[in-house]
Amino acid sequence: MLYLKYFITLSLFLFAAHQSQVSEETSQEAEVVSNRIAWDKNHTLSWSDFKGKADNYSSLDAYTMLGIELEVLGQKNGKVDMGVFGYFEKNKSWVKSKEKTASLLSHEQRHFDLCEIYRRKMIEKLEAKNPYSFKGFSDEVSAIFNEMFNAYTQEQARYDHETHHSQKKEIQQEWDKFIVDELLRLEKYDKLAASLVAK
Question: CA-to-CA distance for 135 and 133, rounded, in angstroms?
Fold first, then answer.
């Protein structure tokens, strides 16, 4: 299991570029987006989503690549809409052909659910900090992102350790319940962006 960290520069830049450069970048961005699945309460992962080539030498039966990303969606009059995105990467996630069990898939889905939990927690933490210093905005947001991302990776590791990658069935059931309860508790933060104020 690997938890990939993404962080987009918070400043907005205006720049000029040749049309060919813009088209190439747009094409690359579209390819990246098409290889990602955003968390959705109405969609669960299926083994067909795991499109990466399996590492048959790995001790793992499945490998899930997840990411959390911040991006400024808009800013006006000191107010900033900070997008917080969590996603599953299809082309970097894999499963061994003989290990496609329902219990393992459920375990991997819970990893994705934990990603969503920490995405919501990040929105909660970002909004609780309001207001931000105008000059120190980027540093303050980065500090919260890093703090929450570290907590997230530790929780993912604890989940795998305690469940022994889904092998300890009773512990897995306890985690399943905890994750469902956390998603419900954080339902208020099931939104695309955090609303921030910079003064």
Answer: 5
Alpha-carbon dihedral angle through residues 169, 174, 175, 179, given to the nearest 10 degrees = 140
Residue 68's nearest CA partner among 112, 6, 141, 147 is 6
Average pLDDT of every residue of the chain: 86
Q: Which of 5, 80, 87, 78 is nearest to 49 (CA)?
A: 87
Q: Any alpha helices (H) in the chain, and if so which ranges?
A: 19-34, 102-128, 137-163, 169-185
What lies within 8 Å, CB to CB, of 159 at 6+ separation is: 110, 111, 114, 175
- For 91, the token pair is 């082309």
Label residue 29 by pLDDT band (50, 70, 90).
Answer: low
How confident is the model over 159-193, as pLDDT tens digits?
Answer: 999 999 999 999 999 999 999 999 999 999 999 99
Helix (H/G/I), strand (E/B), else coil: 55: coil
Enter the pTM of the model: 0.86
Question: Domain extents for the chain?
Answer: 2-197
CA distance 135 to 129: 15
Q: Do the Cβ atoms of 141 and 132 come closer than 8 Å?
A: yes
Taking 90 as the threshold, does the pLDDT of residue 15 lie above it?
A: no
> What sign does the CA torsion over 106, 153, 133, 124 have?
positive
Give the C-alpha separation, 9 to 15, whole Å: 15
The SS3 of residue 70 is strand
